[in-house]
Amino acid sequence: MFEARLSQGAVLKKLIESIRDLVSEGNFDCSENGLSLQAMDSSHVALVAMLLRPDAFDPYRCDRSMPLGISLKSLSSILRCASNDDVITLRAEDPADQLSLVFENPQNDKVSEYVLNLMDIDSEHLGIPETVYDAVVHMSSSEFQRICRDLQQLSDSVSIDVSKEGVRFSAAGEVGSGSIALRQNTNVDSGDEATVIELQQQVNLTFSIKYLSMFAKTTPLCGRVTLCMSSDVPLLVEYKIDEVGYVRYYLAPKIEEE
Prior knowledge:
InterPro entries: DNA_clamp_sf, Pr_cel_nuc_antig, Pr_cel_nuc_antig_C, Pr_cel_nuc_antig_CS, Pr_cel_nuc_antig_N. One of its GO terms (molecular function) is DNA polymerase processivity factor activity. By secondary structure, the protein is mostly beta strands. It has 2 domains: 2-117, Box (Proliferating Cell Nuclear Antigen), CATH 3.70.10; 135-251, Proliferating Cell Nuclear Antigen, CATH 3.70.10. The protein contains 4 helices and 18 strands. It has helices at 9-19, 72-79, 141-151, 209-215, and strands spanning 2-6, 25-31, 34-40, 46-52, 60-62, 66-71, 87-92, 98-105, 110-117, 135-140, 157-163, 166-172, 177-183, 196-199, 203-208, 224-229, 235-241, 245-251. Strands 6-2-3-4-18-17-16-10-14 form a 9-stranded antiparallel sheet. A hairpin with a 5-residue loop joins strand 3 and strand 4. Helix 1 runs antiparallel to helix 2 (72-79) and helix 3 (141-151) runs antiparallel to helix 4. The N and C termini lie far apart (56 Å). The model has no long low-confidence stretch (mean pLDDT 92).
């Protein structure tokens, strides 16, 4: 038996909304460690890993580990029936062929119940090695989203150059070129707006801006984003969900043609 009650239903709604365009289906793994998902996009370019720990829920019950094979599009459609201030309860029997969703609205004593048919999804769990990155950038998630949106007008690729001066995003295409530089600044009024850089050595890598823009859809969940970069390893883009979980995206850099 699996049961998890989320008092802030908006968190689950925003979470599924942010990843549904990247991955269409996946196994949500319920275990004593919480509710997690690891899935690759259809072209096997990007990987998403998310976790909601047990303390995100009250109560959280999982008698034994089990996968819930879910179509994210279908789940997203059902979650759109919930208000942002609804309490959402997820339930599944063991073995699970259906996921029950209950939306409770404390304001108007309304309870909605839905059932989602589960899928049998064959997926392998990838071991993601612990990596010490050459450059780590902590910045405003809305600023990152804005940069992706602006530079996407120029090219399908963006170069990210991290140095001790700051971080520079640049793009060049048929229309023209552009760059946006953020200096390291910690003395801004809002902590969410600060740009903080941890640098072992300078890094300059190029990525598909389409994928970065997809990752940036997670902005409503978190005011800050962390970009972790090293040569020859995938970029890690991490959004922390308060103290209760995270969404992490991994994207391989584009290899520059000689």
